[in-house]
Amino acid sequence: DIVDKVTRLLDKTDLFVADNPVGVGSRVQDIIQFLHIQQSNNVLMLGMWGMGGIGKTTIAKAIYNEIGRNFDGRSFLGNVREVWEQTGGQVYLQEQLLFDIFKGTTTKIQNIDSGKTILKDRLRHKRVLLVLDDVSQLEQLDALCSSREWFGRGSRIIITTRDMHILRWSGVDKAYTMKEMDDTESIELFSWHAFKQMSPREDFARISRNVVEYCGRLPLALEVIGRYLFGRKVTEWKCVLEKLKRIPNNKVQNKLKISYDGLDDDFQRAIFLDITCFFIGMDRNDVIYILSGCELFPENGISVLIERNLVTIDDENRLGMHDLLRDMGREIICDTPRKEPEDRSRLWFHEDVLDVLSAQTGV
């Protein structure tokens, strides 16, 4: 016991969180309050749910650093979705979990099923902190934390995901919906990347607000586009902003597109693309009625899109969507290399519709 305590005290392996962790502290404290729950000895599971790029991983890393040394062992399994898809990645995740908890001890696992048995046998008397970052399939949870009985009393398990269905299936004690940044936080985060200071230069104040509005307060976009604009003139900023409205930033789009690519079938993808072009702001029931005529099974499809944070529903039952997700969907339709309007599956710009109909060039 003394050796274990000394080992924990000497553990300096904190994770890098961010150079400019704007808004991180308050969100971390919100979640930590739940995780402690008057120092409950129950095994508690917390889900963190939100769209790609909203900061789930950043917050989870900060929590891991903040409370990790209070446990017998801790493990942060990052990029579970990516690693799982690699050859040998499934067993690797199980081995990495054990290596993290039992510092310096390597365990060779033959297959997933034997790994589950080993995890249960070795962890059930350990009070651990386990973070599973970017979980995308139920099978991943089954292999890494199939039951609370695998873990010692007082353990805490955090799951970050884009898919609410995963959190419901796992029976988490609380599903925490990631909070959007407010305007002040958004301007500050953007400024650190665009100007390397906490507020915009005076001559860039108005255009900065316009860029932040375009980014929809999404941390990923604020950082990527801020870095790209650093050191450029105001006239170039205006040009870039106009271009982004037609052609989204590739780095941001690729991150967001993971959720689209992960949809179950082409019916769900078609529903998503239809909503991006035609149905934002419309009543959910009206959209279901329309798309049922296209035999797209929209009752289930729209539910899945909501669970995966690709579509939202407001208090008046209207469909909504983050502007960058809308732009990502429309860019998918344009395809690469960029298709001419008459070759696209859907048209949404009035000018394109008028040109195609006038010239009768549609397929």
UniProtKB/TrEMBL annotation:
GO annotation terms (biological process): defense response
Signal peptide residue numbers: none
Entry keyword Acetylation: no
MF terms in GO: ADP binding
Protein's name according to its UniProt entry: TMV resistance protein N-like
Classification via InterPro entries: Apaf_helical, Disease_R_plants, NB-ARC, P-loop_NTPase, WH_DNA-bd_sf, WHD_ROQ1-like
Pfam families the UniProt entry points to: NB-ARC, WHD_ROQ1
NB-ARC domain location: 28-197
UniProt keyword terms in alphabetical order: Leucine-rich repeat, Repeat
Higher taxonomy: Eukaryota, Viridiplantae, Streptophyta, Embryophyta, Tracheophyta
Domain Disease resistance protein Roq1-like winged-helix: 268-333
Organism: Trifolium medium
